[in-house]
Design brief:
With about 180 residues, the protein is an alpha+beta fold. About 45% of the residues lie in helices and about 10% in strands. The chain has two domains: about 70 residues, Alpha-Beta Plaits (2-Layer Sandwich), CATH 3.30.70; about 70 residues, no CATH class. The chain has a four-stranded antiparallel beta sheet, with helices on one face.
């Protein structure tokens, strides 16, 4: 029975109801939980016990690579490839390299942050099992959803439905794969 399910979807009217339900389900133990909200909720990440994101380190790496790459490119062009002595200035005139280095540092950091966010969120995801549930259309407007994933073979469908109903869900439905 669980092989044909993505999981169970529960709908909540308020953010507080969703947070209370997440805490109740996490206290029950064995469930793999996902939450979907129309806006960011303070405390939801802690309630779901999600791992920390990895966007900041990749942003730093992208910024450092962008800055070093820009500086190296300018240095190589001015000192090695096209050394021009104009007005007695030194070939390695680092103050002239700073604006471009700064701009490409920011560009590298922004591109790395965008790519890290897309990879971490699994985007673009054009097809997802939750898109087949008609009630899930309200997830981007005014409803809050909790999903119990049916990934393991010992997924208890009746127990999950009872747990979600006890948590005050407005709607509990099965999500096909």
């Amino acid at each position: 029975m669980t092989a044909r399910l993505y999981g169970l979807l529960a709908e909540y009217a308020t953010a507080d109801a969703l947070l209370a339900a997440v805490r109740q389900v996490r206290a029950a133990g064995k469930w793999q939980v996902e939450a979907y909200t129309p806006f960011s909720l303070e405390g939801l990440v802690e309630a779901l016990d999600m791992p920390p994101d990895r966007i900041a380190p990749w942003t730093l790496v992208g910024g450092v690579c962008g800055g070093l790459g820009a500086y190296f490119l300018q240095w190589y062009a001015a000192v090695v490839s096209y050394p021009l002595n104009i007005g007695g200035r030194p070939l390695h005139s680092w103050p002239a390299f700073i604006p471009i280095t700064f701009e490409l540092t920011i560009l590298g950091a922004a591109i790395a942050a965008l790519l890290a966010m897309l990879v971490q969120n699994g985007l673009p995801q054009l097809v997802h099992p939750l898109f087949a549930v008609p009630a899930f259309d309200l997830a981007s407007r005014n409803r809050f959803y909790l999903v119990l994933r049916a990934e393991s073979d010992d997924f208890d469908l009746e127990g999950g439905q009872a747990l979600l109903a006890d948590s005050g869900a407005l709607l509990v439905c099965e999500v096909p794969p």
